[in-house]
Amino acid sequence: MWGYHDKCLPDLLLENHNVCIHTRDKPSTISREQSEVCFLDREIIKALLVAFPQNSRYILVRLAFRTSWLIGFFGIIRWLAQKQFIFRGILPLRSRKSWQFWVVLERRKQKKVVQQSNLSAEIGVQGLLDFLRKEDINYVVLRSFDKLPKLAREGGDLDILVADKDELRVREFLNLNQGNIPIDIYSVSGLSAGGLPYYPPPLARKILESAVEGPAGSRVPALREAFLSFAYHVLYHKGSLTEHRHMENLLLMAQKMDIFMDITLENLEEYLAGQGWRPKRDTLAKIAVMNEWVWKRFLADSSPKNEIGLGVFILKGGAVRLGFASAVVKAIERDGFAIIHKIQFNDKQKHYAADHLRGGNWIYQSSISPEDYLPAMAIVVLDRNPIKWINEQALGQVPAGRMHALKLKLRKEFDLSGQKSFIHGTDNTTEAWEYIEICFPGELALIEKKMENFKQKNGFNFLKKMHLYLRLSPYLLRHGLKRFIIKRIIER
Fold it and tell me: Which of 154, 251, 279, 484 has the highest local Cβ count within 10 Å?
């Protein structure tokens, strides 16, 4: 029950003793909800605009006068249009003497729950830890490990990070010993989760490599990694410090490390950035979809004045293997973009780029040929319509819009039907500079010089500038109105 504040639950739920009911209010975790059925009410309905419970078969949305429906309605239309759900009708449910009405949506393909398992009480946490030690599993208990083998609190769960090579053995053990103790399993690559890894892979490896012995024969993060990984969890998984126990744990660990600072989200974020633990901007953009604090800090007030129409396209292994990489380059140039620089990765560069871009989210679980989805080539492109060079003031993110449109056009032209895309690209100049630092280490000055040479050879005279302004004016008006409406919705 998400956002449900009525005094009484529907009679149907109260009368069914086989139903386990949980109430939740924080939309930031809704996409990771594990329940078979989710009821969404009040402000939570707005979350449907950007996300939905990925693992739930049925989603019921309260049909009542709610201002959140003004936003949530478009989310429902979006997911229905993408064929994520089937509309099953309106379900009336009696609650004591009144009636409630719920819109019923059913997932077309129920996603298999892969992160959370439930361990038998007969085996218990100690039995699991003994198995992990006996089988020489490379893992850590991420947090709340001080009281092991007891859980930190009644009804709590155990969060475990495990090396990719050992994940299957751990899941097989849990599947053979199912019960009611919640165990969350996260692998380094996040392959089985089908989305962003829990931590960027280089950071996850640091956590595993620095592991020390903990209570009950467990493996736990060393003090530094324990603090950094827990702060990362609070910032980027939760986006909140409202839970008092989180504040206490962070204060205690900071004192042990002789770190003296006020524990706020902003101070923690600055410290993590200084330690190299801040995610890249493209990863932050994905996190911000369900993390309001991240969105406000990094993306809400993004200024377009640094936007110069710069982009980086990544062609994955499948594009190179199938031989259409050169055709993609020609299509980019044909669409009014200049190729500034490019590289085809060797094996070491390929895996480095995969680790540090997109939060490590490249290979997907059902892929027959995983190498097809690793980055294989990087192409630096520049928009030949130099909006920035005409006027550095806020013309909106027009170049970013063109870059995103180009990415979609390339995918439509070159991707194989029924396959994940072989083409990835940045959406704005800020992301592009990060990609250049990772894909072209030591070549930043060369790329800047090439861009400067291009600008000098492709300047706009007065007539061309006026013509471009006239062509852009409808878009600028529409874009400005859209930004104004979104800002007003968020402020409310």
Answer: 279
Nearest alpha-carbon partner for 79 in 112, 45, 102: 45
CATH code given to domain 114-221: 3.30.460
The two beta strands, 337-344 and 212-213, are: unpaired
163: Cβ contacts below 8 Å, ≥ 6 apart: 137, 138, 139, 187, 188, 208
Pairing, β 158-162 against β 139-141: antiparallel
CATH 1.50.40.10 holds for 304-459: no
Residue-wise pLDDT for 422-432, tens only, equals 999 998 888 89
Cross-strand partners of 58: 37, 106
pLDDT, residue 250, reads 92
Task: Break the chain into its structural domains and give their ranges.
Answer: 11-107, 114-221, 222-301, 304-459
